[in-house]
């Protein structure tokens, strides 16, 4: 369940709010408190972080993996949104340049290289439709939708203004990532770590 706070604020005001230990997103000018993740959700995130970090080390890639980091979503009408993917990957220098920010948020025109969203029960449309559109607006080059509810991982890459599907992977299929080429993991291993 998601709790919405009623006061409407602008993105700049959201950035200046002190960190209170709560995981939040800014959607249509409203601060949304995210609920606690399920144990499976946490297990999937932890497994992916460990897997990706090992791959980055093995391939000597200059990338970092982080959680709890927001992404500014530009909007034509109304205040910009701020979404909080479960995992982000970006170059080390990009992360270091953000260290003095008030909040850990990739600002407009400076998106992470990859965002991963693990679908939550009761939040499927937001995780699979809304965030897909929003991360495309934010120009995130690669986006994974990890869906343990329906049993798949969808890998998307930005192609113009929209995402193009690299593949929807299930069961024993090996996931294919453009950013993390050579990463070998089956979907069933991700969905049941």
From TrEMBL:
Q: What is this protein called?
A: Uma2 family endonuclease
**Species assigned in the record:** Leptothoe spongobia TAU-MAC 1115
Which Gene3D superfamilies does this chain map to? Answer: tt1808, chain A (3.90.1570.10)
Q: Where is the Putative restriction endonuclease domain?
A: 12-187
Q: Which PANTHER family match?
A: SLL0198 PROTEIN-RELATED, SLL0888 PROTEIN
In the UniProt record, does the keyword RNA-binding occur?
no
Q: Which InterPro entries match?
A: Nuclease_put_TT1808 (IPR012296), Restrct_endonuc-II-like (IPR011335), Uma2 (IPR008538)
What are the entry keywords? Answer: Endonuclease, Hydrolase, Nuclease
Which GO molecular-function terms appear in the entry?
Answer: endonuclease activity
- Lineage: superkingdom: Bacteria
Q: Which residues form a coiled coil?
A: none
> One of this protein's Pfam families, by short name?
Uma2
């Amino acid at each position: 369940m998601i709790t919405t706070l009623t006061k409407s604020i602008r993105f700049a005001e959201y950035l200046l709010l002190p960190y209170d230990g709560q995981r939040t997103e800014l959607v249509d000018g409203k601060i949304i408190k995210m609920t606690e993740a399920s144990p499976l959700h946490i297990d999937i995130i932890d497994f992916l972080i460990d897997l990706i970090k090992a791959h980055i080390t093995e391939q000597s890639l200059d990338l970092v993996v982080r959680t709890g980091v927001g992404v500014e979503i530009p909007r034509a009408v109304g205040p910009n949104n701020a979404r909080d993917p479960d995992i982000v990957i970006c170059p080390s220098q990009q992360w270091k340049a953000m260290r003095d920010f008030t909040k850990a948020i990739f600002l407009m025109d400076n998106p992470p290289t990859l965002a991963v969203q693990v679908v939550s029960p009761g939040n499927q449309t937001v995780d699979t439709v809304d965030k897909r559109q929003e991360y495309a607006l934010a120009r995130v080059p690669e986006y994974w939708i990890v869906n343990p509810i329906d049993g798949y991982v969808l890998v998307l890459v930005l192609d113009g203004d929209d995402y193009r599907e690299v593949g929807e992977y299930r069961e024993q299929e090996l996931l294919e990532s453009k950013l993390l080429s050579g990463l070998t993991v089956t979907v069933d291993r991700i969905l049941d770590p």
